[in-house]
Amino acid sequence: MNAATSGAVTTAKLHIQNLHAYYGESHILHGLSLIVRQGELVTLLGRNGAGRTTALRAIMNMVGRRIGTILINGVETLSMPAHRIAHLGVGYCPEERGIFASLTVEENLLLPPAIQPGGMSVDEIYTMFPNLAERRRSQGTRLSGGEQQMLALARILRTGADILLLDEITEGLAPVIVRRLAEVLEQLKRRGLTILLVEQNFRFAAPLADRHYLLEHGRIVEEVFAHELDTKSSMLNAYLGV
Amino acid sequence: MSIFPEINLFGLFSQLLVGMINGSFYALLSLGLAIIFGLLRIINFAQGAFYMLGAFGAWLSLQFLGLNYWWALLLVPVGVGLLGTLLERTLIRRISGEGELYSLLLTFGVALIVQGLFSKWFGVSGLPYQVPELLQGGIRLPVMYLPTYRVWILLLSLGVCLAAWLLIERTRLGSYLRAGTENPQLMKAFGINVPLIVTLTYSFGVALAGLAGVLAAPVYSVSPLMGSNILIVVFAIVVIGSMGSIGGAILTGLGMGVIEGLTKYFYPEASATVIFLVMVLVLIFKPAGLFARAA
């Protein structure tokens, strides 16, 4: 896995070109184009309503009509039914976390089927998230917000997905949990996973990411590399309104 | 006339048994409805028609194919399940996402057509179906006479309900069903073929009705209207137990059968309405149903 990772840093895991997406009549994405390469951690920044969540949902075929191109590992997915997309190696962690109330913590963890080899074992996951191990018999939604977020993330690590789409994973969580999530993302990066992160919390995302895309009105308006953060910080602040 | 009638144990236990038998059918049918509603949000008014088709399947396969009761018990539920597959793939799928009322209207319409056709072909007076030889006779207990076939109904339906409950609550496939109930879109995002699960679930739910129909053939006469008679009660039971709760449907089905049986003994005039009375009370005091799962 490590050899493959270091040898193929330029391979596009996810390549979106001129994507338009709709919810019913509302036109949310207006020609979005982006690329995420093997082993990269890339963020989608932007204000609320800029289309960041829709971008992830569009990749998963969870919105209405879509026009454009979405290549996952080089495979065009625009006409693919939703349930086949995960099998290209994609793990999706929704903004609302999507923990199932009718399932225990462990059942939630075991729910997504393994889609390719290379996933973490349940033991590895419980080592990474000891809280989940302690509460494995609890109803999934009885966990605290932070634990639910850990579970939502842990769930897709088991499947062998090597492209993770993470939507606002730090939202509403205590600083200590946010720090823990940052450590987890560091570990996942070291494992060579490719991550597209929608994030509101720029201080969380900045030290982790290789690149940032700035989204406004459903299209990318700026691409910022990690080493440019200092020089472009005023521009970023203007866009994000922070 | 005394206020407390003298209790005739023989009569009481007989009605209790009748109640448990009816309860077994209620449990099987409401289990199927609860599974279908739980995952698919389809209010399956065709459940009664599939029950009737199960009974007719047993009768027809004996008349025309010479298949005895045991073969019917094995094959008819599969056949009824396949008819369910056909209905789901050709009609119900087209209205998915259109709201629950559409599914009610569609399946109600299908049920009426099927019932109408069977009434035209076979009349409404009912056809006899023999109790299989192995299960004829009964056991004389001190307080009652226990017909073997009735014991068989009780044991088999309880066994099937228990197996279905274990399948749904304790297996991986079952966790797909439960999770699919909550958030089918996320299930698809995890790579689970939800449309296939929908078809399988619908087929399994109606196959349970088909099984109930075969079981019922020797005790109730095989009639095109048998399904519509029982269906309204079964819907009341599903509402009492809470729509979509598997264990709730089973326990409520049995419990309501017993309550109905006891009412037949103590106050027969109310036996046809007691279940609806319970439903009204449940809707007033615990509108989500007795077995609603905490979110």
Give the termini distance of chain B in whole angstroms: 51 Å
Beta strands of chain B, count? 2
Number of domains of chain A: 1
Integer average pLDDT of chain A: 90
The CATH architecture of chain A comes to 3-Layer(aba) Sandwich
| Bulk shape of chain A | globular
Radius of gyration of chain B: 19 Å
Strand content of chain A: 25-35%
Fourth-tier CATH superfamily name of chain A: P-loop containing nucleotide triphosphate hydrolases
**Biggest beta sheet summary of chain A:** 6 strands, mixed
With strands numbered from the N-terminus, the spatial order across the biggest sheet of chain B is 1-2
| Element-level helix/strand string of chain A | HEEEHEEHEHHHHEHEHEEH
Poorly predicted sequence stretches spanning 5 or more consecutive residues of chain B? none
Widest β-sheet, arrangement of strands of chain A? 6-7-8-3-9-10
How many structural domains can be distinguished in the coordinates of chain B? 1
Write the CATH fold name of chain A: Rossmann fold
Average pLDDT of chain B, to the nearest integer?
89
Task: Provide structural commentary.
The complex is a heterodimer of chains A (242) and B (295). Chain A is of the alpha/beta class and 242 residues long. Chain A has a single domain, classed as Rossmann fold (3-Layer(aba) Sandwich). Helices cover 32% and strands 27% of the residues of chain A. Chain A is built from 10 helices and 10 strands. Chain A has helices at residues 2-7, 52-59, 82-85, 105-110, 122-128, 130-134, 145-157, 175-190, 202-205, 233-240; strands spanning 12-23, 26-37, 41-45, 66-72, 75-76, 90-93, 163-167, 194-198, 211-216, 219-225. Chain A has a 6-stranded mixed sheet, with helices on both faces. A 4-stranded antiparallel sheet of chain A has the order 2-1-4-5, with helices on one face. In chain A, a hairpin with a 2-residue loop joins strand 4 (66-72) and strand 5. Chain A is globular and about 45 Å long. Chain A starts with a helix and ends with a helix. The model of chain A is unreliable at 1-9 (pLDDT under 50). By secondary structure, chain B is mostly helical. Chain B has one domain. Helices cover 71% and strands 2% of the residues of chain B. Chain B has 11 helices and 2 strands. In chain B, helix 1 packs across helix 9 (226-241). The longest helix of chain B is centred in the first third of the chain and has 32 residues, at 9-40. Chain B is globular and about 60 Å long. The mean pLDDT of chain B is 89.
